[in-house]
Amino acid sequence: MEEITDAVNSMTISETHKKNRIQVSNTKKPLFFYVNLAKRYMQQHNEVELSALGMAIATVVTVAEILKNNGLAVEKKIMTSTVDMKDESRGRPIQKAKIEILLGKTENFDELMAAAAEERELAGEEQS
User: Fold this and answer.
1) Structure confidence by residue, pLDDT tens digits, 10-46
2) Which of 3, 6, 115, 128 has the smallest number of CB atoms closer than 10 Å to its CB?
3) How many other CB atoms are there within 10 angstroms of residue 27's CB atom?
């Protein structure tokens, strides 16, 4: 019984870690959808984990670079690996490349986000 309790306790720790993870696809959403989602996750959790497989890796790297170049994020950790999957068309096992990039807020993240929100408000007032 004690083993089950330990397993449940460790499971909740890993689940809270997943709340700040974005799994990026290279076909479903536009690039800035992921950039804006990552900003929101960093506001809520102070860090975000971007994850992708195969062809979507380029998208994840681009999202991370946009956030870093705009002074919003710093790299905390980059992990690469391969994942065994089944080829949909042939049904045989294949390996796909996987990347996980953990980004944290910069010291001036909140100031930059507040300035951007203020700019949007001013732009909205000018249009009225």
Assistant:
1) 443 344 447 899 999 877 789 999 999 999 999 999 9
2) 128
3) 7
Sign of CA dihedral 34, 36, 42, 45: negative
- Which token pair is 60? 């994840």
Nearest Cα to Cα of residue 76 among 46, 36, 97: 46
Residues 6 or more apart whose CB falls under 8 angstroms from that of 24 comprise 34, 50, 51, 52, 56, 59, 60, 63
Q: Which one, of 65, 70, 17, 71, lies nearest residue 41 by Cα?
A: 17
Q: For residue 25, give Cα distances in angstroms to 49, 55, 63, 106, 121.
A: 14, 8, 12, 26, 31
Taking a C-beta distance cutoff of 8 angstroms, is the pair 42, 103 a contact?
yes
